[in-house]
Amino acid sequence: MKGRVILIMFLMLSMLSFAQEKFATNVKANKQEEKKPEVTEVKRIFDVGFGFGLDYGGFYGAKGTFVPVKYLGLFVSAGYHLIAFGWQLGVTGFILPKNNIKKVRPYGKVMFGSNRVIIVQGASSYNKNYIGFTPGAGVEFRFGSRTSHGLNVDLNFPVSSSEFRKDLDELKNNPAIDISNPAPIAISIGYHFEF
To answer: Which of 113, 115, 127, 132 has the highest CB neighbour number within 10 Å of its CB?
Structure first.
């Protein structure tokens, strides 16, 4: 009988010490959770950037985006497109919401504007800027505690207009002119600020 009482007391003490340890672990975990400040979502309405590539009007320029809802942006850009003024109008669809919570935000887009150029050295009468549609995809990388500024990197697929293809074919058939096909993709990179 004395052995049973000792065994029961030993089991009860073991259970009590385990319960105290578990309680102490839970209290410690709760204290750690309380220390983390809660991040409040801040919706970004405007985005202004400066950079290089089609997203910035051609070779270099500026881009402004209005974000009416956190998954959609409407943008306009203007810049220098190698021989003349270049521009773009477009729509961006964000896969992740455009707010301060996400530091990396992928997106898809389509734009219309200056997307091809013909430059013939020594025969500037052939130089011309062309407009057309350009679908693409990109990623926003935001920095800082407020994630309100950072890099945009884009991969674009310019669709050549019929006028561009016609002029390019005529130049290819001209034996006095040596011309090559344009690249099928275009890369844009810029630095942006969100408000």
So the answer is: 115
End-to-end CA separation in angstroms for the chain: 78
Rounded CA-CA distance 141/49 in Å is: 13
DSSP E strand boundaries for 1-148: 46-52, 60-69, 72-80, 85-94, 104-118, 128-143
For tokens 């995809």, the residue is: 137
Instruction: Evaluate whether 78 touches 58 at the Cβ level (below 8 Å).
Output: no
Amino acid occupying residue 145: S
pLDDT over 70, % of the chain: 81
Q: How far apart are CA 138 and CA 92, in angstroms?
A: 10
> Which of the four pLDDT bands, split at 50, 70 and 90, describes residue 41?
confident
Name which CATH class applies to 46-194: mainly beta
Average pLDDT over every residue of 30-40: 66
Half-sphere exposure at residue 161, Cβ-oriented, CA atoms within 13 angstroms? 16
pTM above the 0.85 mark?
no
